[in-house]
Structure formats: structure tokens, C-alpha cells
Amino acid sequence: MKDSSQPTATAFPIVCRGLVGDVRLGPDAYPEYAAILQLAEVNDENALKRKAHIERYFREFGGYVEIHRRLSDEKFKKEGNFPDGHHGNVAIWTFKSWQWRLYGTTLTVERRRCFVGLKVDASKKQNQANRQLLKSTAKEIGELFEYRPTK
After folding, report:
1. Is 60 exceeded by the pLDDT of residue 1?
2. Domains of the chain: which residue ranges?
3. How far are the Cα atoms of 28, 82, 96 from residue 121, in angstroms, in the given order?
4. How many whole angstroms separate alpha carbon 16 and alpha carbon 22?
5. Given phi > 0 = left and psi -120 to 50 = alpha, else beta, which region is 111?
6. What proportion of the chain, given as a percentage, has pLDDT over 90?
7. Number of helical (H) and strand (E) elements in the chain, helices listed first
8. How far is it, in rounded angstroms, from Cα 13 to Cα 141?
9. Residue 130 in contact with residue 122, Cβ under 8 Å?
């Protein structure tokens, strides 16, 4: 049974809806994504590249079952399993585009496969993911109603 104070991914905006899945962004990630869209509108070169790539990756995720045949580790990568804060671990995945990273996981939301993005590293300077962001993403996912822990 759902606790009324428990956050739910159904409250997050859908930024891409496909035939087989959706992409939703949480309250920290959505403004970062919206900033890319705004900068792209004024022809910011990096924002235009990021927008084109990330929207294509989102469409691939939402449109196809076998996502890993469609997107390489350079675009969509499993960063590892991290503690969810409740005795389990959650797999954290990253969409990557031009020094911009979106961290989240795949959950079932409203009976659909859904990538739930919660944290963004907007000015990635090195290849390795930010461990603190990965850990905090895992803990936030652990709080979501739709999350089912794995041991």
C-alpha cells in the first residue's frame, strides 16, 4: 500500500513517450534538461548538440525493447549497483551527451517501462561518473513508490 508522503515517479513529467517506454525526469533533473532546450532555442552550439543527441537517445529508449543493441555504452551506460538506503541495491544508468550526464534507473511506472532520471552532471569534465551523484541518485530511487529493491 502506498504511503501518501512517499514520492512517486508518476508526478514527474514525461519528456519522451515511446511505443514501449517513457523517460521521466525528477525535480532536480527536469530544470537541467529544460535549460538545454532553452539554450538550444538561442542557438548555443553545445546545447544544440546535447539536445539533438539526448532526444535521439530518449526516443531509442522509448521506442525499442532491446535498448542495448540500439545505444552503446558511449550513450547509455550502467554505472553499477549502489545502496538504495533500505538494505538493497539499485542499478544506476547514465544517458550521456556532450559532457552532460543524466543519472537514473529503469522502473515500471503506470505499467510501462520508464527511465526515471533524477540527477544531472551538467558540465562533466572527466570520463568517470561522479560517485556522490550516483550514490544520492540510488538513495532517491530507493524512496520512490515504484521502486522494488533487489538483494
Report:
1. no
2. 9-143
3. 11, 17, 10
4. 6
5. left
6. 76
7. 4, 6
8. 16
9. no
Q: Please classify residue 90 by burial: count the beta carbons closer than 10 Å to its beta carbon, then call 0-12 exposed, 13-18 middle and 19+ buried.
A: buried
Residue with cell 544531472: 120
| C-alpha grid cell, residue 8 | 512517486
Own/partner long-range contacts of 129-137 (Cβ < 8 Å, ≥24 apart): 129/79, 129/94, 129/101, 129/103, 130/101, 133/103, 134/79, 134/80, 134/82, 134/92, 134/103, 135/82, 135/83, 137/82, 137/92, 137/103, 137/104, 137/105
144 contacts 107 by C-beta, under 8 angstroms: yes
Nearest to 94, CA basis, from 71, 111, 113: 71
Contact 91, 81 (CB under 8 A): yes
> Grid cell 546535447 — which residue?
50
Contacts of residue 1, defined as CB under 8 A and 6 or more positions apart, other chains included, come to none
Q: What is the distance between the alpha carbons of residues 38 and 59, in angstroms, rounded to a whole number?
A: 20
CA distance 56 to 2: 34
| CA 71 to each of CA 48, 119, 120, 140: distance values in angstroms, whole numbers, following the listed order | 20, 20, 19, 25
Instruction: Report pTM.
Output: 0.93
